[in-house]
Amino acid sequence: MAQYSAQLDGVFVALADPTRRAVVRRLGRGSTSVGELAREFPMTLPSFMKHVRTLEASGLIRTVKTGRVRTCVLNRDRLALVDDWLAEQRRTWEERTDRLEQFVTDPEENTP
Question: Which of 27, 41, 46, 106 has the most CB atoms around it within 10 Å of its CB?
Fold first, then answer.
């Protein structure tokens, strides 16, 4: 569970930045080189590479170097980690609101 939490923390930290979310969104359309990705953002290549390294460290993307070209690939399995966590949270809160609704709508049933 602790390792699961650390992985989830890393993914959320990576997704907390709008540039990194835009990179993930762009890679959802298909793999592309770091150079192509960097052209879409108004920053220097070294600054952009910090975002790429953060995404790679979180496991959201992986990079493959072929010659002088580094290509970024989205790891959709890592996004499933976030999706699973959100589904668990949604289920918990739906159960709680259902109990609250029942308590409010049927007060006689809930009195001792």
Answer: 27
Instruction: Region of 22 please: left (phi>0), alpha (psi -120 to 50) or beta.
Output: alpha
CB atoms within 10 A of CB 8: 16
Closest Cα to residue 12, out of 57, 43, 42, 45?
A: 57
How do residues 35-88 score in pLDDT, each as one tens digit?
999 999 999 999 999 999 999 999 999 999 999 999 999 999 999 999 999 999
Task: Compute CA 101 distance to the chain's CA centroid, rounded to the nearest angstrom.
Answer: 32
Q: What is the pTM of this model?
A: 0.79
